[in-house]
Amino acid sequence: MIGFKKTPIKLVLSVFFISLISILLIYIDFTAEKPQKVEEITISKDLPNSLPLIKNKQIHEVKKGDSLSVIFEDKNVPLNTAYKIFNFDKNNLLSSIMPGDVMEFNYIGEVLYNIEIIKDEVNSISINTENEISIKKIKKEAQTITSFGYGAILNSFYKDAKNVGIPDSIIMDFAYIFGWDIDFIFDVRKGDKFFVIFETDYSEGERISSGDIIFAEFINKDERYIAQRFYDDVQGKQYFNENGDNVKKAFLRAPLDFAYISSHFNPNRMHPILHKIKAHNGVDYAAKRNTPVKASGDGVISFIGRQSGYGRTIEIKHGGNIKTLYAHLERFNSKLKVGSKVKQGEIIAYVGDSGQATGPHLHFEFWQGQVRTDPVKVKLPSAQPVNKGQIEEFRNLLNSSLKKLNEYNSIKDE
Fold it and tell me: Residue 153: which CATH number?
């Protein structure tokens, strides 16, 4: 009889636990390789049936010969709406529309809801076409800001004034105001000083005017020039010096802004083209081609056309048996002809080199009767002084400006 050896209990338990651990490891490995289910989260949003309507506008600048009915038709204003607008305009506001006005047609989608007619920076007419028609004038509130400018000449008046923050329009007005006494190219010297008080109008944060000079001072070669703005009952807005004399003269000393003299009045000059002694009975102002040329004074055009060596030429007859001549022009103001009346400072032509000229410049002559006089040296008659009945009012205004000038000088010198 064969006998069996009894297996130890510890061995049996060891095999059992090893088998159990192996099974668990196989299961874990299997589940790790199996793709896990991903939970998807969806956020739903209700979309509108249609996109929102967009505001847009069309612009039309009114030109000569335009009619509102044609403009309305071009901008797709419904006939019924146009009829209602014309019928509603009981105060004839629309009759004031002029060439240069800007019309804004405002739409939501394709539906017109407003028309704005812009007259200038402040005034406009608003036509509401939404629901009921309404037409009304609109005037924006304007705020006037006073500014100061001060500087000394280092290079040129224009550059130095620009460098201290004085606007272009004020610089040009400053040169114009003192232009009867000072040639801002020929007369200005290093060290000359300038001071200006000016005002500018703003509306809704935007500048609506180029500014206007209240008071100006220029010290040229130690000589002081003052100009105070004053509204004279007879002459309107003018500028007067400390004595109440008008700074304006009957004639501009130079008919160009910021040009320089390239050839003076000289009865014994050697002609640059003919190469012989020939009197130069005027002043030559060198300037870029097409620089505007201004009438030196009020008068009537007595000649406009070509004159041999002078090329394109304009002659203006003034009062007091005075005549001015402008030669070597590129072109004329197309509106002018013999007999046309011109005002001082009005643009009459443009610089060129027509006729016998070596380059673009203006030849300017000043005649007193039959005698040609040096325009730079001739004593120019002044315009009217302050109205006698307002002299006290003027002096009070001038004293106020001089006080501001002193206050400003004391602040900047601290």
Answer: 3.10.450.350
